[in-house]
Write the structure tokens for this entry.
Amino acid sequence: MKLDTKIYEEKMKKTLSSYADNLSTIRAGRANPDVLKKISVDYYGSPTPISQIAEIKVTDARTIMITAWDKSIIKGIEKAILTSDLGINPQSDGTAIRLSFPPTTEERRKELSKQIAKLGEDAKVAIRNIRRDANDKVKADKKNSIMTEDEAKQSDKLVQDLTDKYIKEIDTVTAAKTKEIMEI
């Protein structure tokens, strides 16, 4: 009985998805509402994502407008943005908050490229750890006579093919994001 790779493929998909989500939160000089994904506001005692308490619009290439549905939370949103690692000072007029993204310098773009490469490497390590878990399962099944030698080799090949596929996808996503940042 060959190894059922569905479990491991799901884990690899989640790793790739998580990596792509992390990349979307990197501030690249363009206004992108995804940079606010990880910022939560204390709203009636519970941490709430900004997107659940306000409308977020990109008004031009370098500006995001946040309009809170409850005007009393504007100060809380401002504070959450200031204490985050976003590095942007919000401008509030009492009813809405504007985030103006400065153009990125060449140095900042190179720094972001390095950050993207590191996140990519971390994602690849996670994929390889999933591969290791699958290979350990194959070895254990073979040792316990659940799997024959041939089935073990086939399972190892399936796991390696999956690993190669997802590492290639991570490389593709990394290259696309790096290219996007360097063209700004």
Notes: The two ends are 52 Å apart (CA to CA). DSSP finds four helices and six strands in the chain. The helical segments are 6-24, 74-83, 106-143, 149-182. The longest strand covers residues 54-60.
